[in-house]
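Recall that a protein's primary structure is simply its ordered list of amino acids. Everything else, from secondary elements to tertiary packing, is in principle encoded there. The following example makes that idea concrete.
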Amino acid sequence: WIESERLVVPWDRKDPFVTVEYQHRVCQSFKALEDNLSRIDVMMRKGHGRYRFTLLETDNEKLAYSLDFESQAQNYDFEKFIFSPVKLSAYKSFLFCIEGKTKVDKPIGLFNSTLSSDEFILYKDHQIFLNHSLVFQAYSRNKLSFVEFYRLLFERISQYKPLALKVPYLYVVIVGMIALFWAFVYSCWFLVR
């Protein structure tokens, strides 16, 4: 499995845009870019209390995921919500919501981006903020074949290494994996004998 970061909303504000108080709900709409949506990370300011995270498919108003949680995020950190992959999620509209479940003196704060797009709509209770977005990242989990995995590995290596280093490095990785495989097979064969 490979988790591919496909939708990243940039952070461009220092202070939280909205706080999630008791019995209040903050929701964010977005479109998934790939199938198998499986994780959403939301940037938060540290707070106390219990909250509920829900993910809805807005096309058919189907609940895809729900979780009660206590915020573990530090200041300017992402709270991670990992769930079973939503099959056929590419280009579908989703809405994730965070709702306050307990009264606290310091609720979590959510950061926003000034990213301007029709795809993003931010809701707080019944108030709508057009062309606003929370700072979040959406991930998809996709199966890759052996060949696709090495193509992806080669592409990622080429981002950081010059050509003179990346080709030999990739061959060392491949030969090393083959050597480990045959060492394992030989040791199993030796033990059976």
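The radius of gyration is 22 Å. Residues 163-192 form the longest helix (30 residues).
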